[in-house]
Amino acid sequence: MIDFVLKVSPLHSVKKQKYPAMLVVTGDHDDRVVPSHSYKYIAELQNKAGHDVDGQRPLLLWVRKDAGHSGGGGTLKAMEETSETFGFMAKVTGVKWQD
C-alpha cells in the first residue's frame, strides 16, 4: 500500500530537475488541504530545482489570509486575486502591458 501512495504523492514525486515557474496558492484556513502541505511541496520543489540564478522560473507560495479552500471574500478580493495571478503569469512569460 505504501508503494502506491508514494507513487501518487505530489510531494514524493518531485525529482531533481529544472521546473517551470509555479505559483502554489493556499488559504490559511483551508479545511480540505492542510496549508502546511503547500509549504512542504513548494519547499521540496525549490530544494530539488536548485537556485534559479536568472529569476525566470520562480517557485512561489501564496498564502491567502483568512481564506479557505475556495477563497472567499467577495468581489474585491476576487479581483485582487485575479490581478495577482495574471501579474505573475505576465511576469514569467514576459508579456508587456499596453494601454
Task: Tell me what you see in this structure.
With 99 residues, the protein is an alpha+beta fold. It has one domain. The chain is 42% helix and 12% strand. It is built from three helices and two strands, in the order H-E-H-E-H. Strands 1-2 form a two-stranded parallel ribbon. Helix 2 links the parallel strand 1 (22-27) and strand 2 (59-64). The longest helix is centred in the C-terminal third of the chain and has 20 residues, at 74-93. It is flat. The mean pLDDT is 86.
Mean pLDDT: 86
Topology pattern, helix = H, strand = E: HEHEH
Distance between the termini: 56 Å
Helix content: 40-55%
Number of beta strands = 2
Structural features:
99 residues, alpha+beta, two-stranded parallel sheet, 3 helices, flat
Summarize the structure.
The chain is of the alpha+beta class. It contains three helices and two strands.
Layout of helices and strands, plus pairs?
Layout: H1 2-8, E1 22-27, H2 35-49, E2 59-64, H3 74-93
Parallel strand pairs: 1-2
